[in-house]
Design goal:
single chain; alpha+beta; elongated
């Protein structure tokens, strides 16, 4: 009983209320394609793309083996993704490209937080990209804007770390009640 009390106390004391934000843009809810992504994710996530960045499906453009079937993001020219409220720590996505390209992450003051080169994925047929690679870019600070190179296919853009489960207020209350019950029970005299 003592060990359980100590374990529950440690869990309660070390549990954090801080949550990592994790936003995944997979473009699958965009049903009219090809169409500019633009403000599609503005209401839900506060993310806006330049108008030349568009969602495509198989009927619109030749590609295959995309990480999440069947919609991807593409632009023939460079474009920006904006999130004025920012995101931290990581930007991750899948890409398919026939030549080296780059991605640059900026903060609100236009300082560069990170730049990554995306090497060509080696598609056997340059007219039908089919090889996708995951890129993960770690950075310090709060990013508000990302510059993506054009002529590259993108899918499953993730902003922020994967959410780590934390103890909710309700669960903490239940733990406190359990600890109180154990304490009261331990204080009561034992009857033989």
């Amino acid at each position: 009983m003592n060990k359980l009390f100590i374990l529950l106390s440690l869990i309660l004391l070390t549990a954090s209320n801080a949550k990592s934000e994790n936003i995944l843009l997979d473009f699958e809810k965009i049903t009219t394609t090809p169409d500019s992504v633009a403000n599609f994710y503005d209401t839900e996530f506060g993310v806006v793309f330049d108008t030349q960045a568009a969602a495509y499906r198989h009927a619109d453009r030749a590609f295959s083996n995309e990480p999440s079937f069947e919609t991807i993001l593409y632009s023939s020219s460079d474009f920006f993704m904006h999130r004025p409220s920012g995101f931290k720590d990581i930007l991750s996505f899948y890409h398919s490209n026939n030549h080296d390209t780059s991605v640059t992450i900026f903060d609100a003051s236009s300082n560069i937080l990170a730049t990554a080169t995306l090497t060509a994925t080696g598609n056997p047929d340059p007219n039908n990209p089919s090889i996708w690679e995951r890129a993960t870019i770690n950075f310090n600070g709060t990013a508000t804007r990302v510059a993506f190179s054009g002529d590259t296919l993108y899918d499953n853009i993730q902003l922020g770390k994967t959410t780590v489960p934390t103890l909710s207020g309700f669960f903490k209350l239940l733990l406190l009640m359990l600890l109180a019950g154990i304490s009261i029970r331990r204080l009561q005299p034992h009857r033989s």
